[in-house]
Write a structure and sequence with these properties.
Number of domains: 1
CATH class: Mainly Alpha
Number of strands: 0
Strand content: under 5%
Largest sheet: none
Order of helices and strands: HHH
Radius of gyration: 13 Å
CATH topology: Helix Hairpins
Number of helices: 3
Oligomer: single chain
CATH architecture: Orthogonal Bundle
């Protein structure tokens, strides 16, 4: 997910995307703990996506 894509979304869509991404991170952490996750780089990418969403969300709600 790129920053340009995130900036195009409105606040409600950002909140929905944030919730979905956090669920994805939870599932990836669970897979990692049980040894089922092969690509551990996904964890880093999902955390970055959450940070991107939060940054844009804070910018939009702060205006």
């Amino acid at each position: 997910m790129k920053v340009a894509e995130v900036r195009e979304l409105d606040v409600e869509e950002l909140e929905q995307r944030l919730a979905a991404t956090r669920r994805e991170l939870f599932n990836l952490r669970f897979q990692h703990a049980t040894g089922q996750l092969e690509n551990t780089g996904q964890l880093k990418e999902v955390r970055k996506n959450i940070a991107r969403i939060l940054t844009v969300l804070n910018q939009k709600t702060g205006e």
